[in-house]
Amino acid sequence: MSSPPVPLGLDPDAAPAVSRARAIPTDLAARLRAALPEEAVLTEEGDRGAYLIEERSLYRGEAPIVLRPGTTEEVATAVRICAEAGVAIVPQGGNTGLVGGTVSAAHEVLLSLGRMNRIEEVDPLNFTMTVQAGCILANIQAAAEAAGRLFPLSLGAQGSAQIGGNLASNAGGINVLRYGNARELTLGLEVVLADGRVWNGLRALHKDNTGYALKHLFIGSEGTLGIITRAVLKLFPPLTDRQVAFCALRDPADALALLSMARDRAGEAVTAFEIVSGFALEIVTRHAGGQDPMAERHPWYALIELAGSGESGALRPVLESVLERAFEAEVVADAAIADSLERAATLWRLREGIPEAQKRAGGSIKHDVSVPVSRIPAFLERAGTAVTAALPGVHVCAFGHLGDGNIHYNLSQPEGMEKAVFLARWEEMNGIVHDIVADLGGSISAEHGIGLLKARELLRYKDPVELDLMRRVRATLDPRHLLNPGKMFGLV
Ligand code: ZN
Predict the structure, then answer these.
(1) Cα of 451 from ligand 1 centre, angstroms
(2) Residues in contact with 150: Cβ distance below 8 Å, sequence separation at least 6, in sequence order
């Protein structure tokens, strides 16, 4: 068994060794310039800088050439020229993934999809839209809304995340409970393959049983099998009624009981169900301007949202009856129901402000894990006991998407401990938490992917047969490992 990853952030000078591809030939930039528009090839340090930053500063990108193609043909041309030279390409979307999935090495070319940012078609009657990979997620949501439709993928970074990256990492977010991951929201894809050929799977079909569902290979492949250039996305009816409540709970088992009651009563109208630990709420009120809606503090909280396409307010009595039952069953200790959209947004900020509050509260060691929903109470109890035994005083800042089993199990540094001393325990804490996750049949990456950050952990926890199959797929589609080498599999 290999050991878990050491985040490079602890050693800012440690360059990621990520590729076994050839070095960049001196004439590669000239060859790319001859074949692509001038604005598509950046080599000046000042122009490349923004593409080399990694948000958590765990890694530093080093690509000497950054490509910004504006069309699928230009992506294909760039891939073909680099493939001929044996040079590896690192595809990049909005660079918001947080696992080092778009970090480049000095002998690699970075290819940004950001200029491919056109929404090509919205087809409200087919409930689909066709978009280029570089479209910002929030712009896609807005275009759907303007057409009287909903594109439900929703996550913290949606103002800068690009759909191509969302698909390549199979992003999750807050609405997975009702609408599924990015994977479930995709009908068709266009992909540039490792040899520069273009696979046109851009079909807008809700039913298509003509062989292997190849799109699913590329979704979640983190750019290791091909570069997604366009997609057909699923749209849904608009949500015209939205009811939100923030509930105080004794423990995660009560959260699970509340979720079950809500789904029994409201069915598909339960669009989000988030859990927030007492510590997480405390730091949001202290560092991120959140206002505690309760008279007193409680150990746990849940944010529940019901939404539907009916008359505004229609779901209010449904939410009230869910909470009434929960009070009667002593599952909920207190609850605040939003009586306006502004109030609903205020309650949502108690959940959405947690990552920002955690940054201000000092160092944090992060986990993005999932277990079967019914095992969340067992996971939280076992993990809490284990991390506290290993590091007395550590603060468990657990929160996330209880409705789909995905917990952001973050740890904040104990009072009085140096940040660097705390962060030096990253690997150890990851091992403790991920061992429990694995024991409960869970996943060490629920919605952010593997990238560089979890590559070694993937090798440790993934079933060897499954890893073998993944490697065979990779060997078929990218035999020379020229697409995003080192990501997901580590160095091979
Ligand atoms: Zn999340």
Answers:
(1) 16
(2) 141, 144, 235, 236, 237, 238, 239
The architecture CATH gives domain 362-451: 2-Layer Sandwich (3.30)
- Ligand 1 center to 155 CA (angstroms): 7
Residue 106 one-letter amino acid: A
Spatial contact of 110 and 65, defined as CB atoms under 8 Å apart: yes
**pLDDT of 197 higher than 90:** yes
Is 241-353 CATH 3.30.70.2190? yes
Reduced to 3 states (helix: H, G, I; strand: E, B; else coil), residue 161 is coil
Residue 21's pLDDT is what? Answer: 74
Q: Rounded to the nearest whole angstrom, what is the distance from the C-alpha of residue 43 to the centroid of ligand 1? A: 35
pLDDT higher than 90, residue 16:
no
Distance 401 CA to ligand 1 centre (A): 7
- % of the chain with per-residue pLDDT over 90: 92
Instruction: Enter the tokens of residue 422.
Output: 């705390």
Percent of the chain with pLDDT over 70: 96
How many Å lie between the centroid of ligand 1 and the Cα of residue 171?
9
Domain 119-234 listed as CATH 3.30.465.10: yes
Q: How far is the CA of 98 from the centre of ligand 1 (A)?
A: 11
Whether the model clears a pTM of 0.90, i.e. scores above it, the answer is: yes
Per residue in 449-488, pLDDT (tens digit) is 999 999 999 999 999 999 999 999 999 999 999 999 999 9
Residue 162 corresponds to which amino acid? Q
- Spacing, Cα 21 to ligand 1 middle (Å): 34
* 28 alpha carbon – ligand 1 mean position (Å): 40
pLDDT of residue 58: 83
For the cut 90, the answer to whether the pLDDT of residue 1 exceeds it is no
Distance CA 58, CA 170 (A): 22
Ligand 1 mean position, distance from CA 355 (Å): 10
pLDDT at position 20: 57
Place of tokens 């004794």: 250
Ligand 1 centre and the CA of 48: distance in Å? 29
